[in-house]
C-alpha cells in the first residue's frame, strides 16, 4: 500500500529547473500561519534579497502544522527572558556588552556592569548563559562580578551552567576551583549547590576532551564524597561515566574500568543499563567481535536482557549493515516473550533507508502499524533522511506529507535532512526557500539548521547571505560557535575581506573560543601575501594569548576546493589525451605527452589522499 502511495502522481512539491541567470526567486504563496498574530518583522526575512520578490516558488512546500511544543534537543532552551520580566532590560544591557567588540572579559566588563546599576540574580544570569553559550570567558567574568555583589548567591542550576561553560572551554582548573569552593563543608547553605549533576558535567566534558583517565578520577572523587553521592546515585553516576566514555570513542577504557570494578568487588552487581551502554559502545565503534563477546558473557552470567538490550543489538547490527542479523534478533526477543517496539523497529527502517532499500523499509513500516505505538516521528525522519541521501526529494516530500497526515509534527530535525541535502548539493535557492517558509510559518530553526545554512552559503561563495544568516542566528539566540565562526572566517579570507576576517577572529578570542590552528595559519599567510604585516603580527599576538594545538583538526573543508580544482584540471587533461589517442597516428606525440600524463596521475593520487584525509 505504501509503495503504491509513493509511486502515485501529484508529488507534494516539484522542482523546477533553475534559471541560468540569478533572477529573483520568491517565497511561495502565503500558507496558513501557525500563529494568527505572527508576522515576520523586516529583519526576520531578508527584505532586500530575492526572497521577498514576487514570482513563482521553486518548491511548493506543504502547509506546515503547528510546531511541536516539546523541546528540540538542538533548540535554544531559553533565548530571552519573558518580555514581562523586570530583568528584560538588564538582559538587553548585558547582551549589548557581550556583543560589543571593545568590551573584554575582566576589569573592562566589570566596570561597565558596575555603571549599568544592574542587580544580578540567578534567573538573569541563566538567561545570559543560555544565549551566549559559546562565550565562556565573558560568562565566567560575568559570574565573578555577580559573586561580588551584595546579597547575590548562585543556585545549583546556575553553578552547573558556569561549570559547564568553563569545562566546555577546557578551563578545567577554573571549573574545579568553583566546584571545590562550593562543595558542602558542613554548612547547610553550601551543601545543596554541588550535586551529582555537577560531577556528571565534569565527567562528560573530560570524556569529550579525550581525557578518559581524568573522567574516571572525577567519578572516583565524587563517589567518595558521601554528602553528595549516596549509594543510590553512585550507580547512576557510574552509568554516566561509562556512557560518556563510550560515546566519545573510549570504549576500551570504559570496558577495562568496568571489568576492574567487577573484579575489585565481587558483590557488586552492575545494572542492565551498564551492559546496554557497553554493548552500544562496542557497536558504535564498529567492534563487532567485542560486542558479540559481551552479549555471550551476559547470557552466561544470566543477565536478563530488556527491550532496550535487544534494541541496542538490533541498532548495532544495522549500523554494521547486517540487517538480516538484526531481524534474527527480533525473532529471538519475540521467543523470549519481549514484544518489539519503536526502539527495535526504527533502527531497521533507518538502516534499510540508509542503504537505499526503500521497498523493504516501507514494508517494515507497514509491519510497524500492527503495533499499538505505531510509527514515531523518528521512523519517518529515518525515511526522509534516506530519501534525501539518495537525492530523491520527491520521495522525501511524500513521506513528510504522510507524517503530517498521521498527526505527527515535523521537528527542526526533520527539516534539517532537507537542509543537509541542499547544503551537500549546493542548492542555495531551494534551501533559502525552505528556510523562509519555516520562519514565515512560525518555526524556530535550531542551531544545526543555521550551521547547515552558513556552511552551504560559505561553500557556494555567498558571503553577504552567509553574514545575514549569521546575524539571524544571533538574533534568534544562538551564539556563533567554533564551526560557524571558522566557516565565516575562511570565506572572508577567500573573498580577500581580511579586515572583517580579523575582526571575527579577534571576537572569537575575546569570547573564549580558541580558533583552529589551520585557520590561524591561513589568515597569517593571506595577510602576509597582501602586505598587511602589522595585522599579521597582531594576529600572532592574539593566537599566542590562548593555549592551542598545532594538530587541531579543520572542521571546514575549505582546502577541498583547491584539491577539486586540481582534480578537475587533471580530468580535463585526461579527456584531451583520450581525444588525441583517437586522432593521433604519430607515436612520438604520445611519448611527448607521457611525462605530463604520469605527473597528472601522481598528482591525482595526492589530491585523493588529501581529500580522504580530511
From TrEMBL:
<comment type="similarity">
    <text>Belongs to the PPR family. P subfamily.</text>
</comment>
<dbReference type="InterPro" id="IPR002885">
    <property type="entry name" value="PPR_rpt"/>
</dbReference>
<feature type="compositionally biased region" description="Pro residues">
    <location>
        <begin position="64"/>
        <end position="84"/>
    </location>
</feature>
<feature type="repeat" description="PPR">
    <location>
        <begin position="446"/>
        <end position="480"/>
    </location>
</feature>
<keyword id="KW-0378">Hydrolase</keyword>
<protein>
    <submittedName>
        <fullName>Structure-specific endonuclease subunit SLX1</fullName>
    </submittedName>
</protein>
<feature type="compositionally biased region" description="Polar residues">
    <location>
        <begin position="593"/>
        <end position="602"/>
    </location>
</feature>
<feature type="repeat" description="PPR">
    <location>
        <begin position="306"/>
        <end position="340"/>
    </location>
</feature>
<feature type="repeat" description="PPR">
    <location>
        <begin position="481"/>
        <end position="515"/>
    </location>
</feature>
<dbReference type="Pfam" id="PF01535">
    <property type="entry name" value="PPR"/>
</dbReference>
<keyword id="KW-0677">Repeat</keyword>
<feature type="repeat" description="PPR">
    <location>
        <begin position="341"/>
        <end position="375"/>
    </location>
</feature>
<feature type="repeat" description="PPR">
    <location>
        <begin position="376"/>
        <end position="410"/>
    </location>
</feature>
<feature type="repeat" description="PPR">
    <location>
        <begin position="271"/>
        <end position="305"/>
    </location>
</feature>
<keyword id="KW-0540">Nuclease</keyword>
<dbReference type="InterPro" id="IPR011990">
    <property type="entry name" value="TPR-like_helical_dom_sf"/>
</dbReference>
<dbReference type="GO" id="GO:0004519">
    <property type="term" value="F:endonuclease activity"/>
</dbReference>
<feature type="region of interest" description="Disordered">
    <location>
        <begin position="588"/>
        <end position="614"/>
    </location>
</feature>
<dbReference type="Pfam" id="PF13041">
    <property type="entry name" value="PPR_2"/>
</dbReference>
<feature type="region of interest" description="Disordered">
    <location>
        <begin position="60"/>
        <end position="86"/>
    </location>
</feature>
<feature type="repeat" description="PPR">
    <location>
        <begin position="411"/>
        <end position="445"/>
    </location>
</feature>
<keyword id="KW-0255">Endonuclease</keyword>
Amino acid at each position: 500500500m505504501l509503495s503504491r502511495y509513493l509511486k502515485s502522481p501529484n508529488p507534494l512539491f516539484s522542482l523546477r529547473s533553475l534559471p541560468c541567470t540569478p533572477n529573483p526567486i520568491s517565497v511561495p504563496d502565503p500558507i496558513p500561519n501557525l500563529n494568527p498574530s505572527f508576522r515576520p518583522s523586516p529583519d526576520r526575512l531578508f527584505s532586500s534579497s530575492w526572497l521577498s520578490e514576487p514570482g513563482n516558488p521553486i518548491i511548493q512546500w506543504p502547509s506546515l502544522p503547528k510546531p511541536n511544543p516539546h523541546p528540540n534537543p538542538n533548540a535554544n532552551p531559553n533565548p530571552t527572558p519573558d518580555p514581562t520580566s523586570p530583568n528584560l532590560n538588564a538582559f538587553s544591557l548585558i547582551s549589548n556588552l557581550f556583543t560589543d567588540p571593545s568590551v573584554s572579559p575582566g576589569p573592562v566588563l566589570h566596570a561597565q556592569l558596575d555603571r549599568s546599576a544592574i542587580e544580578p540574580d540567578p534567573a538573569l544570569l541563566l538567561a545570559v548563559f543560555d544565549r551566549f553559550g559559546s562565550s565562556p570567558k565573558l560568562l565566567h567574568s560575568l559570574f565573578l562580578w555577580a559573586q561580588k555583589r551584595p546579597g547575590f548567591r548562585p543556585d545549583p542550576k546556575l553553578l552547573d551552567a558556569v561549570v559547564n561553560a568553563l569545562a566546555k572551554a577546557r578551563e578545567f582548573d577554573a571549573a574545579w576551583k568553583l566546584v571545590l569552593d562550593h562543595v558542602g563543608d558542613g554548612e547547610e547553605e553550601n551543601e545543596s549547590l554541588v550535586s551529582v549533576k555537577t560531577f556528571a558535567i565534569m565527567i562528560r566534558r573530560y570524556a569529550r576532551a579525550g581525557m578518559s583517565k581524568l573522567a574516571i578520577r572525577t567519578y572516583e572523587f565524587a563517589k567518595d564524597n558521601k554528602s553528595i553521592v549516596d549509594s543510590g546515585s553512585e550507580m547512576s553516576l557510574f552509568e554516566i561515566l561509562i556512557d560518556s566514555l563510550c560515546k566519545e570513542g573510549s570504549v576500551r577504557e570504559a570496558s577495562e574500568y568496568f571489568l576492574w570494578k567487577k573484579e575489585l568487588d565481587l558483590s557488586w552487581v552492575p545494572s542492565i543499563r551498564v551492559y546496554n551502554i557497553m554493548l552500544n559502545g562496542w557497536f558504535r565503534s564498529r567492534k563487532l567481535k567485542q560486542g558479540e563477546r559481551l552479549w555471550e558473557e551476559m547470557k552466561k552470567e544470566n543477565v536478563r536482557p530488556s527491550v532496550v538490550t535487544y534494541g541496542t543489538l538490533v541498532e548495532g547490527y544495522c549500523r554494521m549493515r547486517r540487517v538480516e542479523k538484526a531481524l534474527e534478533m527480533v525473532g529471538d526477543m519475540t521467543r523470549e516473550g519481549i514484544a518489539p517496539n519503536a526502539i527495535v523497529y526504527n533502527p531497521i527502517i533507518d538502516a534499510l533507508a540508509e542503504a537505499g532499500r526503500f521497498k523493504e523499509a516501507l514494508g517494515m513500516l507497514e509491519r510497524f502499524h500492527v503495533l499499538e505505538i505505531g510509527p514515531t516521528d523518528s521512523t519517518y525522519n529515518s525515511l526522509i533522511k534516506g530519501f534525501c541521501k539518495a537525492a530523491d526529494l520527491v520521495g522525501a516530500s511524500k513521506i513528510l506529507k504522510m507524517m503530517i497526515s498521521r498527526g505527527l509534527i515535523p521537528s527542526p530535525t526533520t527539516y534539517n535532512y532537507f537542509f543537509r541535502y541542499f547544503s551537500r548539493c549546493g542548492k542555495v535557492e531551494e534551501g533559502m526557500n525552505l528556510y523562509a517558509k519555516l520562519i514565515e510559518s512560525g518555526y524556530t530553526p535550531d542551531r544545526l539548521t543555521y550551521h547547515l545554512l552558513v556552511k552551504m552559503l560559505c561553500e557556494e561563495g555567498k558571503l553577504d547571505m552567509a553574514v545575514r544568516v549569521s546575524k539571524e542566528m544571533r538574533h534568534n539566540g544562538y551564539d556563533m560557535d567554533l564551526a560557524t565562526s571558522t566557516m565565516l572566517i575562511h570565506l572572508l579570507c577567500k573573498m580577500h575581506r581580511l579586515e572583517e576576517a580579523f575582526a571575527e577572529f579577534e571576537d572569537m578570542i575575546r569570547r573564549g573560543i580558541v580558533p583552529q590552528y589551520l585557520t590561524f595559519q591561513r589568515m597569517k599567510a593571506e595577510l602576509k601575501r597582501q602586505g598587511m604585516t602589522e595585522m599579521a603580527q597582531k594576529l600572532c599576538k592574539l593566537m599566542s594569548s590562548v593555549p592551542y594545538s598545532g594538530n587541531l583538526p579543520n572542521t571546514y573543508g575549505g582546502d577541498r576546493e583547491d584539491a577539486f580544482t586540481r582534480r578537475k584540471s587533471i580530468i580535463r587533461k585526461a579527456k584531451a589525451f583520450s581525444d588525441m589517442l583517437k586522432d593521433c597516428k604519430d607515436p612520438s606525440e604520445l611519448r611527448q605527452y607521457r611525462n605530463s600524463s604520469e605527473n597528472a596521475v601522481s598528482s591525482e593520487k595526492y589530491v585523493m589522499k588529501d581529500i580522504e584525509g580530511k
